[in-house]
Amino acid sequence: MEAELSSRAVKDDNGNVSYLEGFVNDVSEQKKSERALKQTESRYRIISENTGDVIWIMNIESNQFTYVSPSVYNLRGYKPEEFLNQSVKDVMTQESYKYISENLQSRIDAFLSGDESMRVMTSEVDQPCKDGSIVPTEVVTTLLVNDEGQVKEILGVTRDIRERKKMEESLIKSEEKYRTLFELDPDYTLLLDTDGIIVDVNNAATSITGKSRNEIVGKPLNESGIIILEDIEKQREKLAIILEKNDIQSFEVRIMDKNGNIRWVNVKITTIKRNDNVFFILIIASDITATKQFEKELKDSIREKEVLLQEIHHRVKNNMQIISSLMNIQTRYLDDEESINVLKESQNRVKSMAIIHEKLYRSKDFSKIYFIDYIENLVWDLFYSYSVKKGTIEPVLDIDDIKLNIETSVPCGLIITELVSNSLKYAFPDNQNGEIFVSLKIRGDEYELIIRDNGIGFPDNIDFRSTDSLGLQLVNSLTDQIDGKIEMKNDNGTEFKIIFKELIYKERL
Fold first, then answer.
1. Angle CA 240–246–247, to nearest 5
2. Nearest Cα to 160, choosing from 139, 141, 142, 131?
3. CATH classification of the domain holding 154
4. Each residue's pLDDT tens digit, 18-37
5. DSSP assignment, residue 14?
6. For position 467, which CATH number holds?
7. How remote is the C-alpha of 473 from its chain's centroid?
8. Collapsed DSSP state (helix, strand, coil) of residue 478
9. What is the 3-state secondary structure (H, E, C) of 158-178?
10. Which of 112, 233, 363, 430 has the fewest other C-beta atoms within 10 Å?
C-alpha cells in the first residue's frame, strides 16, 4: 500500500505545542492512475515522435500551434520549433486557408449543436515547404472539448499524399485514355454487369441504334432493343460458357439500326475480372453487314455459274450423244467391216468424253471427276459396245478413292478407252476366256494407271510407240499431254503402265 502522511502541531492557550496530530491517507489508486497516465503519455509521445504522419495541436483562439511532432521536418523542411512560431495561415496555401477559415466556425457550431459528424473531418490541404515547393497533404482534424464543454483546441494528423496523388493522376490519365479509346472505337461496344445489365455504351452504339445513353444504360441486354431477341436466345449457351470458363467467344447476331434496317454484327465477348472474380462482361460488335451482303452476292453469283456450268455440261453431253447416235446410224449403211470398226472406235471415244460431262452435270463439284464410278461406267460401256458375252471376258477393277480435274480426266479416260478396246478386240481371239485388269492408284504425288489382260500378248514385231494404229498413236499422244511415262510388258498377256501427275489448269484464250 502507498500512503500519504500529514501532521499538525496542537498548541495550548499560551501558544505552546502540546502534541502532534498525524494523518495517513491511502493513495495507492491515485498513484496507480498517475503512473498509468504517465505511461500512456509516454507511449503517445513515442508514437507521435516516431510516426511518419505529422501530429499537431492548435489553439483556436490564438490560431497558434501548441504542439507538433518531429516528423514535420520530413514533410515541410521546418524544425518543430520553427513550425510552432508559424501561424495557421503560414502552413497552408492561400486557397486552402480561405476554405478552412471560412468553414471552421460553422463546423464548431454544428458540433456543439449535436452534429457528431462534425467532430472528425478529413480534408486535403496544400502546404508550402521551406524550399518553396508545395506538398499535397491529407489532414484529419478532431475537435477537442474541455471540461466546460467548449472547443478550444484542434488535434490534427497530417499525411503526405504525394505518391497517392501521382497514382490518382496516373489513374485519371489512364481512365481518360481508355475512355477516349472506348468512345472513339468504331465498333459497337457495351459493358454489362454479371446480371446482364448494361452499365456503359460507346458513341458508335448509340449512333447506330439512335438511342441515347440514358435509354440504354441500366437496362438488361435482352430488353434494350439493340440485339434482336431471337438471336440472344440462340446464344445463351455461349454466354453461359463465358461466365463459367472466362473464355472469349464470338458469334454473329442481328441488330436493328435507327432506320429500322437489319444489320449483321460479329460479336466478341470477354470478361473483366478483379481478384479472379468476374465483375463485368465486355461486348464488342463489329459491323459485317457489307461483308454479309458481299457473301450473299458472291453465293448468288457462284450459284448462277454453277447452274450455267451444269447446263453447259448437260448440253455437251447431249451433243456428244447425238454424235454417237449419228455414228451408230451411219454404221447401218456401211458394208465394210473396217469402216464400221473405225466408226465404232470413234463412237467409244465420244462416249468416254460424254460420260465425263454426265458425271460433271450430276456432281456438286464441277472441278473434279470421281474416278471409281467413272471407270466402272466406262469399262462396262465398252464391254457392251463390243458385245462381250457374259462369262467370257471379266473386268477386274482396282481403283483408289481418286478425284481428278477435267484437264486430266479427259485424256486419262481416252487412254483407258483405247487400251481396254485393244484388249477386247485383239487379246482374246476365237472367243477365248480371260480377264482385263484396270487399276488406278495413288503413288506419292503421282498416279499409276495399269491396264492388263491375260490374252495372247502384244505382237513382238510391232513397236507400240511407233505404229500405224490410230488408237496407240492416240495413247502415246495423250500420255505426253498429261506429262506421263508409259511402259509395256508382254508376259502372260499385255500390260500397259502409265505414271502421271494431275495437270494444272491453264487458262485458254
1. 85
2. 139
3. 3.30.450.20
4. 766 665 666 566 555 555 44
5. T
6. 3.30.565.10
7. 61
8. helix
9. EEECHHHHHHHHHHHHHHHHH
10. 430
Task: Please compute Rg for the chain using Cα positions.
Answer: 53
- Of the candidates 358, 387, 414, which is a domain's last residue? 358
Same domain for 75 and 157? yes
Helix, strand, coil % (nearest 5) of the chain? Answer: 45, 30, 25
Mean pLDDT of the chain: 81
Give kind and range of the element (H or E) at residue 35: helix 28-50
How many domains are there within the chain? Answer: 5
Classify residue 428 by its DSSP letter: S
Is 337 domain-assigned?
Answer: yes
Considering the domain architecture, whether residues 433 and 503 belong to the same structural domain is answered as yes
274 domain residue, yes or no: yes
Using the structure block, give the residue that is written with the C-alpha cell 465404232: 344
Q: Give the count of alpha carbons within 13 A of 44, CB side only.
A: 10
Helix, strand or coil for residue 103? helix
Angle at 428 between CA 422 and CA 432, to 5 degrees: 155
**294 and 189 within one domain:** no
Residues 37 and 55 in one domain: no
Burial of 358 (0-12, 13-18, 19+ CB in 10 A): buried
Q: Which of 379, 327, 321, 307 is nearest to 354 (CA)?
A: 321
Q: What is the reported pLDDT for 40?
A: 45
User: What are the angstrom distances between the C-alpha of 261 and each of 202, 226, 256, 297?
Assistant: 20, 12, 6, 18
Task: Encode pLDDT of 54-108 as tens digits.
Answer: 888 889 888 888 888 888 888 899 998 998 898 888 888 888 888 888 888 899 8
Same-domain check for residues 374 and 497: yes
Where residue 196 falls among pLDDT bands split at 50, 70, 90?
confident
Provide the residue range defining the domain that includes 29: 1-47
The arithmetic mean of pLDDT across residues 179-183, rounded, is 75
288 close to 311: Cβ distance less than 8 angstroms: no
Out of 316-330, 393-407, 455-469, least confident range: 316-330
Q: Contact 157/140 with Cβ under 8 angstroms?
A: yes
- H or E element, residue 65: strand 64-68
